[in-house]
Amino acid sequence: MALRKIAQIGHPVLRQVARPLTREELLSPYVQQLIDDLIATMHDADGAGLAAPQIYEGVRVCAIEVGQNPRYPYKPKIPLTVLVNPVLTPLTTRTFSNFEGCLSVPNLRGRVDRFCELRVQAWDQKGNDLDFVTRGISAGTFQHEVDHLDATLFIDRVSDTRSLCTWQEFERQHREGFIQEVRSIVAEFGS
Q1: What backbone torsions phi and psi does residue 15 show, to the nearest 5 degrees?
Q2: How far is CA 115 from the centre of its chain?
Q3: What's the distance, Cα to Cα, between the start and end of the chain in Å?
Q4: Quick one: which H or E segment has residue 93?
Q5: What integer pLDDT is reported at residue 1 of this predicted model?
Q6: Radius of gyration of the chain (CA)
Q7: Active-site residues: which are they?
Q8: Is 114 inside any structural domain?
Q9: Is 104 a domain residue?
Q10: Is 2 among the domain residues?
Q11: pLDDT of the chain along its 191 residues, tens only?
């Protein structure tokens, strides 16, 4: 596996809708290597997730994992999950306000409204069907990554541009309050 460069805001690859893969393509050595590289790059950058367009590959693949992540120590754990051709279906109209950042939009965070509960349908790295429900903060992480496959960055969904801040100012001004919000969401939704 190899570490890949992460595309930054302004690069056209981030604004192109990614194409679906066939099962045959998914199982090819090239795409299997791409997925391994995606995971390695996500881990190296301390990301909670990473989508193929972020490493200059316009296919509908993303990886998500939250564990011992120094950038997001307050997030609930998500085991390593690879989504191929994902479809997200909101199970409620209820939303929560999530403070998000992105490896492709360095040093910026802002508030985004995300659905509290959604169904995730996709293939895993080996082409097996996935079908599960995710809730709360974790649901926000899945929505963020799948947005990348639809050429959408979190800044496109910021509900109030006055919430935009640098990582440093988030840490100074907003982190503690947001951690309290996260705890409330986790208490209600379990993730």
Answers
A1: -115, 20
A2: 14
A3: 31
A4: none
A5: 78
A6: 16
A7: 145
A8: yes
A9: yes
A10: no
A11: 799 999 999 999 999 999 999 999 999 999 999 999 999 999 999 999 999 999 999 999 999 999 888 788 888 999 999 999 999 999 999 999 999 999 999 999 999 999 999 999 999 999 999 999 999 999 999 999 999 999 999 999 998 999 999 999 999 999 999 999 999 998 998 77
φ, ψ for residue 72 (rounded to 5)? -135, 60
DSSP 107-168: EEEEEEEEESEEEEEEE-TTS-EEEEEEEHHHHHHHHHHHHHHTT--GGGGBS-GGG-B-HH
Q: Which domain holds residue 30?
A: 12-189
* Per-residue pLDDT, 94: 96
Q: How many distinct structural domains can be found in the chain?
A: 1
**CATH number of the domain encompassing residue 46:** 3.90.45.10
Q: DSSP label at 17?
A: P
pTM for this model (two decimals): 0.95
What whole-number distance in Å separates Cα of residue 133 and Cα of residue 88? 9
In-domain check, residue 170: yes
Dihedral sign, Cα of residue 66, residue 63, residue 17, residue 133: negative
